[in-house]
Amino acid sequence: xxxxxxxxxxxxxxxxxxxxxxxxxxxxxxxxxxxxxxxxxxxxxxxxxxxxxxxxxxxxxxxxxxxxxxxxxxxxxxxxxxxxxxxxxxxxxxxxxxxxxxxxxxxxxxxxxxxxxxxxxxxxxxxxxxxxxxxxxxxxxxxxxxxxxxxxxxxxxxxxxxxxxxxxxxxxxxxxxxx
Length: 179
Prior knowledge:
globular, six-stranded antiparallel β-sheet, Chalcone isomerase, 27% strand
């Protein structure tokens, strides 16, 4: 556990809020998945995962940049269970862990040309840890949403295979806690 966890947590929270604010400011047409989710949230095929309410207020785990062909800026947010597990380097992650990845097209800043900022929202991706419900997929359920609507079954069929092939040794999670 880090000695200055409170300071790091506060710094991550501020950074997450700044990144989210920049995403909203970058494009007036950015669709907030939370706003487009119907009163009964749509569930992902195969796993039944939904977009968790209030996730935009969660702490940032880490930002990321995805190269071509996606050319996206991404930020992963974690619920309190996820943040605690990441800070303590707990593996496997405990049941109740939820990670949400927000993805945006990269866009050159109108105000500062050398800067890249979030543009149009592309997806909200969710991982939920429930070792009993998702026993056949390492304890994880997956959801990929476009404008609040679950992506097709074909996209969900690739989730676990990709995580299993690349990060099985880290309980199927790509993201590490940003310093």
